């Protein structure tokens, strides 16, 4: 397998005649590991596998029909199980995406990724990529060695979407199981099913099948070039933001420990409409009084968290996450704090906008 950071051109991608190849879109595939690059001891094993062990060259060689869809260049950015995604790797990936998209030789990008943190990476890029060219993430629920592995078709569809003119200006997308999702909306909803990614609140943007791409709606909220967020603004380090949960019998121990450790923000996965156990709410109010940014999200799988206004949020200095789940709310809060948005009023405006 190619080492992380290695660029290569796949020979199988060059089987077209030069005249027909010159008319195809130019798509860069960046591999980061994950189940799509996983392998197990036998073809019936879909859970006891090692993620990220198959190199990008092997992934592309398994889909020779890619040569009819795009001129593909490939790069191994990382080889990780996405449960172990790091903030440093996020920064490396985002900068590489921006560098490639700034080139006239790249029309779009596909990122192969693990499913565990795909929605977080996708939303980070949705907010920080500075190009209107398509960026499409894809993944797999079954390792490459499995019977009926879903990775090859997902990869083919992702490259098809990345090379399609309709995808331009839609921000970062996720192509999975024939559907096209916005990075802001998509979440993982199953531990095993090949249709694990859904957009519960708004639905998919469109679909891709047999080379055809169709969008049923377009992304409305600002993204990519229309945001003030930049990976370069992170500077010396990411603002420390953590997530806590509210549940029956919850205590303030976790909140107090995180505040003592110096966090700059906390996202709470509340019950229902982001409601918070009384003991935890008291601790969060104390934290807000010390300047820690507090965002109310929900542990429920869909819906949105409404502001309680003067009765609670205004008085306590809390921000509400809208339809963002706790993990995406954390991404936005980190970027907002890094960009200098620190007051509850300013942060609420950020969450209402993006």
TrEMBL record:
Question: Which SMART domains does this UniProt record tie to the protein?
Answer: Asparaginase (SM00870)
Where do the Asparaginase/glutaminase C-terminal domain residues begin and end?
A: 241-351
Instruction: Tell me which residues this entry annotates as catalytic.
Output: 35, 115
Give the highest taxon in the source lineage: Bacteria
The entry's keywords: Hydrolase
Does the record carry Cell division as a key word?
Answer: no
Outline the extent of the L-asparaginase N-terminal domain. 26-219
SUPFAM superfamilies for this protein? Glutaminase/Asparaginase
Question: InterPro entries given for it?
Answer: AsnASE_II (IPR004550), Asp/glu_Ase-like_sf (IPR036152), Asparaginase/glutaminase-like (IPR006034), Asparaginase/glutaminase_AS1 (IPR020827), Asparaginase/glutaminase_AS2 (IPR027475), Asparaginase_C (IPR040919), L-asparaginase_C (IPR027473), L-asparaginase_N (IPR027474)
Is Hydrolase among this UniProt entry's keywords?
A: yes
Question: Which Pfam family is one of this chain's hits?
Answer: Asparaginase
Family membership noted in the UniProt record: Belongs to the asparaginase 1 family.
What protein name applies here?
Asparaginase
Where does this protein come from, organism-wise? Paraburkholderia bengalensis
**Highest lineage ranks of the organism?**
Bacteria, Pseudomonadati, Pseudomonadota, Betaproteobacteria, Burkholderiales
């Amino acid at each position: 397998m190619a080492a992380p950071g290695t660029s290569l051109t796949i020979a199988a991608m060059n089987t077209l005649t030069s005249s027909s190849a010159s008319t195809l879109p130019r798509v860069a595939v960046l591999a980061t590991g994950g189940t799509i690059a996983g392998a197990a001891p036998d073809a019936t094993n879909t859970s006891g596998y090692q993620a990220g062990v198959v190199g990008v060259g092997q992934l592309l060689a398994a889909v020779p029909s890619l040569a009819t869809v795009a001129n593909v260049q490939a790069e191994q950015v990382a080889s990780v199980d996405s449960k172990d995604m790091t903030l440093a790797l996020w920064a490396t990936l985002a900068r590489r995406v921006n560098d490639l998209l700034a080139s006239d030789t790249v029309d779009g990008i596909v990122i192969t990724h693990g499913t565990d943190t795909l929605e977080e990476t996708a939303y980070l890029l949705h907010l920080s990529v500075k190009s209107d060219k398509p960026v499409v993430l894809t993944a797999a629920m079954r390792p490459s060695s499995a019977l009926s592995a879903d990775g090859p078709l997902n990869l083919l569809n992702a490259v098809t979407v990345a090379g399609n003119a309709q995808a331009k200006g839609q921000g970062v997308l996720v192509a999975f199981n024939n559907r096209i999702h916005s990075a802001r909306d998509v979440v993982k909803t199953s531990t095993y099913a090949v249709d694990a990614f859904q957009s519960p609140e708004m639905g998919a943007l469109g679909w891709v099948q047999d080379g055809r791409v169709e969008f049923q709606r377009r992304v409305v909220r600002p993204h990519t070039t229309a945001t003030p967020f930049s990976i370069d603004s992170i500077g010396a380090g990411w603002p420390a933001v953590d997530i806590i949960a509210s549940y029956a019998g919850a205590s303030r121990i976790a909140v107090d420990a995180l505040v003592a450790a110096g966090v700059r923000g906390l996202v709470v996965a509340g019950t229902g409409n982001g409601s918070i156990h009384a003991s935890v709410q008291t601790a969060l109010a104390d934290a807000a009084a010390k300047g820690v940014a507090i965002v109310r999200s929900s542990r429920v799988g869909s819906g949105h968290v409404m502001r309680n206004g003067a009765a609670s949020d205004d008085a306590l200095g809390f921000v509400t996450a809208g339809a963002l789940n706790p993990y995406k709310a954390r991404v936005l809060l980190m970027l907002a704090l890094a960009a200098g948005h620190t007051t509850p009023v300013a942060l609420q405006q950020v969450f209402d906008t993006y």
